[in-house]
């Protein structure tokens, strides 16, 4: 009697797990990026390069999803675009490329069409955060600076359901890196009096749009596309 009940519970749990694991998405992003560091403009949103990435999303349930993402960007920062007079008079500039990878959790405030009803939810805001790393190659000083840095990505966006399997996404994603030398400013700051802020780390922010495509059999009680 007890063994039958235990078997029934285990079977239901496995069935539920398999049902949840069948909702998958692949997508891509394209847009702009900006570096907030010791060279260039200080604004949170001031594009200075392009950004592109691809990702995989596993919809754990109607509200939570796990996302694995890898991206590439090129950037250029210049003190000529800065707000502060000191930076404009200094006249430094730097450029380079950046490759990053992140593992993040997403939370949707309103599930996209969670049940098969005539009245559908076609858009929802969401937030996300996780852990990742980036590899950058900057050309600020006399030699190129290449390094790998751990980063903390977090951001927000809006998803739009175009069909059962296609979504359109708009997102702003910030990365806080454990480095104050993303753009290679240390290569220039060699004098006795530092010309950079050594008390804050550098940021990397992307503003992008993208599409995702779902596949896999949906559970009979769930329709997140």
Q: Can you tag this structure with a few keywords?
A:
225 residues; mainly beta; Porin; 8-stranded antiparallel β-barrel
Secondary structure elements and their pairing?
Elements: H1 2-20, E1 24-36, E2 49-59, E3 64-78, H2 85-90, E4 93-108, E5 123-138, E6 145-161, E7 166-177, E8 203-215
Antiparallel strand pairs: 1-2, 1-8, 2-3, 3-4, 4-5, 5-6, 6-7, 7-8
Provide the CATH topology: Porin
Intertermini distance? 41 Å
Order of helices and strands: HEEEHEEEEE
Q: What low-confidence regions span 5 or more consecutive residues with pLDDT below 50?
A: 5-22
Instruction: Please give the number of β-strands.
Output: 8
Specify the number of helices: 2
Return the domain count: 1
- What's the story with the biggest beta sheet? 8 strands, antiparallel, barrel
Named at the architecture level, the CATH assignment is Beta Barrel
Overall residue-averaged pLDDT value: 79
Order of strands, main sheet, comes to: 1-2-3-4-5-6-7-8
CATH top level class name = Mainly Beta
Radius of gyration: 22 Å
Structure write-up:
- This protein is mainly β and 225 residues long.
- The protein has one domain (18-215): Beta Barrel (Porin), CATH 2.40.160.
- The chain has helices at residues 2-20, 85-90, and strands spanning 24-36, 49-59, 64-78, 93-108, 123-138, 145-161, 166-177, 203-215.
- The protein has an 8-stranded antiparallel beta barrel.
- Strand 6 and strand 7 (166-177) form a beta hairpin.
- The chain is elongated and about 55 Å long.
């Amino acid at each position: 009697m007890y063994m039958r009940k235990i078997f029934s519970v285990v079977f239901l749990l496995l069935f539920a797990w398999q049902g949840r694991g069948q909702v998958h998405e692949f997508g891509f992003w394209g847009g702009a990026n900006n570096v907030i560091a010791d060279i260039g403009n200080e604004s949170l949103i001031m594009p200075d390069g392009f950004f592109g990435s691809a990702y995989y999303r596993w919809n754990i349930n109607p509200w939570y999803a796990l996302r694995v993402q890898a991206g590439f960007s090129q950037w250029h920062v210049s003190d000529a675009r800065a707000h502060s007079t000191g930076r404009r008079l200094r006249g430094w500039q730097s450029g380079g490329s950046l490759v990053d990878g992140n593992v993040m959790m997403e939370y949707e405030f309103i599930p996209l069409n969670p049940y098969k009803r005539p009245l559908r939810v076609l858009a929802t805001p969401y937030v996300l955060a996780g852990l990742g790393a980036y590899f950058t190659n900057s050309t600020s000083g006399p030699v190129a600076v290449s390094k790998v840095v751990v980063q903390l990505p977090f951001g927000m966006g809006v998803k739009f359901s175009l069909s059962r399997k296609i979504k359109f996404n708009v997102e702003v994603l910030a990365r806080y890196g454990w480095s104050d030398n993303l753009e290679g400013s240390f290569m220039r700051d060699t004098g006795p009096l530092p010309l950079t802020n050594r008390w804050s780390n550098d940021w990397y922010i992307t503003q992008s749009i993208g599409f995702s495509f779902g596949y896999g059999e949906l559970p009979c009680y769930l329709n997140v596309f």
